[in-house]
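BUG: 3D viewer hangs when loading the predicted structure for this chain

Environment: internal workstation, default settings.
Expected: structure renders.
Actual: progress bar stalls at 90%.

Input used:
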Amino acid sequence: MGAVGGLPHETWATSSRRTRAHRSWTPLGRALAATGDRWTLLIVLQLSGGRLRLSRLHRCLPGVSTGVLERYVQQMEELELLTRTRHREMPPRVELELTQAGRELLPIAVALSRWGMVRMWSDPGERERVGIELLLRTLPMLVEDPAELPDGTVEAVVVDHPEPPTHVSYRICGGHIQVEHATGRSQSRVEGNTGMWIEALGPAADYARLTFEGERQLAIALLDALPRSTRSVPRVG
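Structure tokens produced before the viewer hung:
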């Protein structure tokens, strides 16, 4: 049985009907046909921490409808980039997890994210959906040299009334940053609304309006470790 792009021939033949066609018969062409769209690599990044509920994934990806997300998940499942587990319970629970092939895309997604933050980053455009939770959950992968950070725990909170607050917690240990379940007992806590977080995570890197509790310098060190834009980029429309 032949294989195409690392996939069995019949798997590619079936799934390629759903992926965007690419004119170049090259390994890169096949890879771009499978992943060079708006959502696939973002889904890969969100699943980098392990198994995640489909409903949770939907909340983490601003601007994608339920139907569109389902289509991409199905496509990634057919391409053997992720697995879907349906649990027989009420209410229904569906969990997604990257396969080995999906995990192999992580370094590519991380490299593109860092490149985007250094070379293409600007304030959000009028047509761009802002998802602070998405940015905060991918923050550990954006940090270029986590070994320079002091050990500790940091909790980032997004407060946009009347919506319930969003919590993303980090554990920094031995040069590694891990997103973990929020316990409310972090050494450092930093809070702000969406506008304040845009100022902090955008090219201005302005933390002035964020509220810090506990070990302020620990949170500052984490934010300062993000790559910053090297040139002025026009706002994306």
